[in-house]
Design brief:
Keywords: Repeat. It is built from 5 helices and 12 strands. By secondary structure, it is α+β, with helices and mostly antiparallel strands. The chain has 3 domains: 2-126, 7 Propeller (Methylamine Dehydrogenase, Chain H), CATH 2.130.10.30; 146-183; 217-277, no CATH class.
């Protein structure tokens, strides 16, 4: 997009028929469906090219969030602006009328909003600052609460101090992060390794299952997710056509559906049976 070149784009968000770009100096550019890009009718004629939203030109915008057909903008002063479709009241203005240009949400003024988000037909705002981003394999302090006592459902830990439990949990999450970033280096095939091998001793517990309960869910399900992903066809949302007859013709009874499908599937190429990309 040549118009946005060289101006320092910080964030890009996309709705169903429009896009929003936020620059590093707090300006908002939009393009797409003219009724959803926050521009007055006179300037919406060039909606197929990025244009700066004039209502927000005097505001330093910290963040933008996009739903299906509505947009939120958060200013450095903690104010929230909204525009677009409002059929479900997702703009938070107390009515359901469509809003063409950014409108200040007076109900959130003075609340020092620090985060915003938008779903298909709903919006949310937080006064709490966003959590720092976490990168796999990089140790960062966990944002964990510290209860006064061990919850009763964890009877095995009732004799362990809260601080010890917290330290153990941080260690397990750090171990999970290391596994997440290096799992490709491990031989996870049980047919190609031996439990007596010193080299494979570290991964045997993962293959056999002893260590899996100690790993975060995103880690122990990762190999399966990646394997399923390899069976999918990128950029394709349909599969081979299979014809099933359910109505008898000329007095001839139809074969069972499973039989009809099986007779056609065996004649197809294996590559055509891969799942389409979701």
């Amino acid at each position: 997009v040549d118009i946005l070149c060289g101006i320092g784009i910080r964030k890009v968000a996309c709705g169903t028929q429009f896009s929003v770009a936020l620059t590093k100096d707090g300006h908002v550019y939009t393009f797409g469906q003219d009724r959803l890009i926050g521009l007055p009718e006179g300037r919406a004629r060039n909606h197929n090219r990025p244009q700066q939203v004039p209502v927000l030109s005097g505001v330093f915008v910290e963040d933008v969030a996009v739903g299906a057909e509505h947009t939120l903008a958060l200013s450095s002063a903690g104010d929230v602006y909204a525009w677009g479709s409002n059929s479900e009241g997702q703009l938070g203005l107390g009515h359901t009328n469509h809003i063409r240009e950014p409108t200040l949400l007076t109900s959130l003024q003075g609340k020092n909003i620090r985060q915003i988000s938008a779903g298909r037909c709903h919006s949310a705002a937080w006064t709490a600052p966003p959590a720092p981003p976490r990168a796999p394999g990089v140790s960062v302090p966990l944002q964990l609460g510290l209860p006064d006592t061990i919850p009763p459902q964890y009877g095995a830990l009732k004799e362990v101090s809260i601080h010890t439990v917290r330290a153990r949990l941080r260690l397990l999450y750090h171990f999970s992060d290391l596994m997440y970033s290096s799992w490709r280096l491990l031989n996870l095939s049980p047919n190609n390794q031996s439990s007596t091998s010193h080299y494979n001793a570290g991964t045997w517990g993962i293959v056999q299952g002893q260590l899996r309960p100690l790993l975060a869910p995103r880690v122990y399900t990762l190999p399966m997710v990646r394997s399923i992903g390899k069976t999918m066809v990128q950029g394709k949302n349909y599969g081979p056509q299979i014809t099933v007859k359910r109505i008898s013709t000329r007095g001839r009874k139809c074969k069972p559906i499973l039989v009809q499908i099986a007779r056609q599937v065996v004649k197809l190429n294996a590559s055509d049976l891969r799942l389409p990309s979701r």
